[in-house]
Amino acid sequence: MRELLWPRKGFLRPIRYLTMRILRLSASPHAVAAGVAAGVFVSWTPFIGVHFIMAFVITYFLSGNMVAAALGCAAFGNPLTYPFIWGITWEIGHLLLSREDHLAGQAVDLAAMFHKLNFMELWKPVLEPMLLGAIPPGIVTAVALYALTFYTVRGFQTRRRTRLMERARLRLADPASDIPSV
Q1: What pLDDT sits at residue 54?
Q2: Per the confidence metrics, is the pTM higher than 0.85?
Q3: Distance of alpha carbon 119 from alpha carbon 174, whole angstroms
Q4: Share in percent of the chain as helix, strand, coil (round to 5)
Q5: Where are the bilayer-spanning segments (predicted)?
Q6: What sign has the CA pseudo-torsion 101, 102, 103, 106?
C-alpha cells in the first residue's frame, strides 16, 4: 500500500528518466529540441487520439527527431495534466472568442455528443474554444521548451564529447592503462 502512495524511488524518478532519455538521443540539438517542442505544442490541442501523428507531422517539417516528439507528447500530455490543459484552453478560448460561457447553468451531455460523433454539434460549444485556446499557451511552452532543450542538449553533448576525447587521449598515451571503454 505504501508503494502505491509513495514510490520507493520517489516521484521525480520518471522525470529524471525522461530527461536523460531526451539528452542521450543521438541527434543534433535542434532536432531534439524541435521534436520536444512539437510534442508539447500538440499536447495542448483537444485531439487526444491523434497527438502523436500530429507531432510527427510537425516534427518532420521542422527536421526534428521523432523519438523526441513522442517523448514530448507523452511527458507533457498525460492523464495527470489533461484536466489542467483542458481547463486552461477552455478559458483562454472563451476569452479569445469574446463570448460568455453560454452553457452556464445548462447541462451538456458530452457522452451523447461523442456517441453520435456529430462534429458540428461538438465544434461550437467544445472544440472551437479549446482549439483556439490551445494556440497561445502551446506557442509559449513550445518556444520556451525548445530553447531550454536546445541549450541543455548542446551542453550535454559537448561535455560528453569532451569526456570521450579525454578518455581516447589517455588510452593513446598509455595503452596499458585500465581505463574502461565506453
Answers
A1: 94
A2: no
A3: 70
A4: 75, 0, 25
A5: 48-68, 130-153
A6: positive
